[in-house]
Every structure is written in structure tokens, then in C-alpha cells.
Amino acid sequence: MSDNLLYGIAALALLAAWGMLIYLLTGRSSRRAGPWGSHRYGRTSLEKRRPFRPALNVEQQLHVVATAAFERRRLLSASEYRVFKTIEEVLIAARRGYRVFAQTSLGEILASPDEQAFRSINSKRVDILIVDQAGWPVLAVEFQGGGHYQGTAAIRDAVKKEALAKAGVGYVEVFASDPAGEIRLLVRERLGWQSRSLPPQQAEPKIAP
Fold it and tell me: How far apart are the two ends of the chain, measured CA to CA in Å?
């Protein structure tokens, strides 16, 4: 082997070693610097609000739950529950074996081969869900109370509506000002059932906001 070849191999080895050293030094520095690459940016707002906690195993979850305080919460607001009962009355009167559920996760009633799409809807819920006699979802009812369309609420509802439509599940919105009679007729119509108009003299109570 010639001297020039030996010198070339030695130079390449030295260059590779130098590159590895630079990589190790810069990599450690960036990892120490945090998510923005520098200590001068400090901690993120999320880190300031909530300290990092590693995932808990089931034993740790039991300990945390056993030492914490809990209180019950309403599944539905008073106005939502009035709508729920109105829809429940429609289904009972029809005697078709349909059932109504509240606060149902979309991840439990929809499936998608696209993992990212499924994650986008998995934790979202519909206020009221109607299923047929075989347990298949047929109609989602969203209650729009006062101040519902705040922040990103409208976009979240659009996501739910799109996913439900692609799966063949109906979607309808009811509002706090809708009389109970109109809600009954609307549900019957969306389910494809024959409905009758209310007598003109019959006054229906409104759903309180």
C-alpha cells in the first residue's frame, strides 16, 4: 500500500472523527437548550401552567384516585336534558325499538382506516345520539345553547358533521329557542318517519336556554 493511500485513509478517518465530535457537542447543547434551542427563551407556557408528570401505571393511578377528592357532575345541562327527554318521548311513542344516548364519543361509533383522521374525531362527542333497533347510530343531535359558537366550537362541529356524514349518520342542530313540538317534528323528519303537523291552537313550551 502506497504512502499517499495511507495518508488519504488517515485524513478521512480524522475528518470523520472530527465530524462526530461536532455532532455530539451540538446535539447535547440543543437538547439542554429546550424546545426553542436556547435557554434565553425559558420554559414554554404549558410548562409554566402544568408541571410535567410521567405516565402513571395502574397502581399509581389507584393511589392518586384514592387520595383525591371527587364530586359528581351533570351529564347534560338542564336545557340539554329537556331536549333529551323530548327526543326520548318521540322514540318511545314510535315503538320502533330506537334508543337515545347522551354525550357519546365519536370514537365509539365511527371507524376510519386513516389513523390521523380517526384521532381527529376520537375524543369528540355528540350531545345526543339516536340508534336504531339493532344499535346502529342513525342520527346525531347537537344542542346549540347560548354562546355555543365561541372560539373554535363552530370548526369542531364542522369536523363532527363531516365525519358523521361520510359514515352515513344524520346530523341535526336544535337551539334553545326551539319549541318542543318543532323538535319532535324535526326528529321524525330526519329519521324518515311520517309526521303530522301540530294543531294551530296547541301551544308548545320552549326549551329554556
Answer: 91
Contacts for 185 with CB less than 8 Å, ≥ 6 apart: 195, 197, 198
Residue 149 has pLDDT above 70, yes or no: no
What the block records as the C-alpha cell of 128 is 345526543
Segments forming the whole domain that contains residue 148? 78-190
Look up the pTM and report it: 0.65
Check: CB of residue 106 under 8 Å from CB of residue 122. yes
Residue 103 identity: Q
What distance in Å separates the CA atoms of residue 127 and residue 105, rounded to the nearest whole number? 9
Alpha-carbon distance of 99 to 191, in angstroms, equals: 12
127-164 as b/e, with b when 16 or more CB fall inside 10 Å?
bbbbbeeeeebbbbbbbbbeeeeeeeeeeebebbbebb
Q: Is residue 115 very low, low, confident or very high in pLDDT (cuts 50, 70, 90)? A: very high
| Stretch among 27-41, 93-107, 169-183 having the lowest mean pLDDT | 27-41
**Count of structural domains within the chain:** 2
Specify whether 83 is located in the same domain as 182.
yes
CA atoms within 13 A on the CB side of 195: 18
pLDDT in tens, 65-95: 999 999 999 999 999 999 999 999 999 999 9
Report the DSSP beta bridge partners of residue 170: 139
The CATH number for 83's domain is 3.40.1350
**CA-CA distance, 164 to 130, in Å (whole number)?**
13
